[in-house]
Amino acid sequence: MTDRIERTVDLKAPVSRVWKALTDHKEFGTWFRVKLDAPLAPGRVSCGHKTSPGLEHLKWEAMVQTIEPERRFSFTWHPFSAEPGTDYSEQTSNLVEFTLEAIPSGTRLRVVESGFDKLLPSSRDATFRRHDDGWSTQMQNITRHVEQQV
């Protein structure tokens, strides 16, 4: 196992389009499958609920860390947040970073989630596997989202 998950995808969409999909709370919610209550802002908690069928009862929460226009967006979150009834206040948060790079065909998007080595050993492997699969799905979701609307 490793401390981080990395995914990179080349999108056939301009940086400005991908940036909007990442940082507009309504667009982010569409492809990420979460309904957010308010716009994203550095230093503020972003709250909402998952919208995937069967998961609508689950809360989604992240602390926005960085918004560097058309370059970098990051947030921290508790990686077990899909487990209802669990108190995460004493758990370490993982960092999720999205970076964008203009390429001739559009935009190279990279996402890195790090911090798994700080998780409780009893749930570390399962959480890593779930997030590893999840980021593969999310990269497919954002690809469909930005490329269908170019």
TrEMBL record:
Pfam families: AHSA1. Signal peptide: none annotated. Residues 12-147 form the Activator of Hsp90 ATPase homologue 1/2-like C-terminal domain. InterPro entries: ASHA1/2-like_C (IPR013538), START-like_dom_sf (IPR023393). Belongs to the AHA1 family. This is Activator of Hsp90 ATPase homologue 1/2-like C-terminal domain-containing protein. The lineage of its organism: Bacteria, Pseudomonadati, Pseudomonadota, Alphaproteobacteria, Hyphomicrobiales.
